Amino acid sequence: MVEAVERAIGDLADPQRAVSSARFFKTGPGEYGEGDRFVGVTVPQLRMVAKRFRGAGADVVWRLLASEVHEHRLTALFLLRGEYERADDDTARRRWVDLYLQALSAGRVNNWDLVDTSADPVLGAWLVRTDEFGLLVELAEHDDLWTRRAGIVGTFAFLKCGVADATLAVVPVVIDDRRDLIQKATGWMLREMGKRVDRDLLTDYLHQHAAEMGRTALSYATEHLMPEERAHYRSLR
């Protein structure tokens, strides 16, 4: 089935889009996505491929995750997420979560779109279910860019349930990391905390910690505040 999935993706390939995607996802020397390969297939198209191959087993997902082609790995994560969400019991759900964590540790979830499409609805959803977010803190403590981002973005699942504890536990771990993709994820989660849980939690956090935050994280966190509020928090840096 792996070959069939790869063939279905290949049939949709667009060389011009592949060049554009490679540029967009920073695949040049020294960039965060260095060496990643694209064939040029859109996310909606990949979701349709995943839907077509619904029910693929763990071996198929793992082998696709091992591919050097970005779209193969993204499709694998769509398949993994679908199987996790359709699982009948926690034993089955846990197997998919374990596979996800193995893929993350093996460096196969290695670009921001791959992390963002999976860390929240798979890992985060599982941890909400088990009422435990310590693993997200552990992931955020890693130096690896993608592991750390997964720890941050995984807290989104808790925010969607109106719980800010996971985000507030992870943010202090990453607040000094000035890498752009960590900054953006941190500010994004803080902003969502203010929108989905409690605006006062956000403003209280900013009042105490805005001076420690990078410009990008602060910009993302204050995006939906009034202009004068944004100016105030920027002045604290």
TrEMBL record:
The name this protein goes by in its record: DNA alkylation repair protein
Organism: Gordonia aquimaris
CDD domains, A to Z: AlkD_like
Top-rank taxon, per record: Bacteria
A family per Pfam: DNA_alkylation
InterPro entries: ARM-type_fold, DNA_alkylation
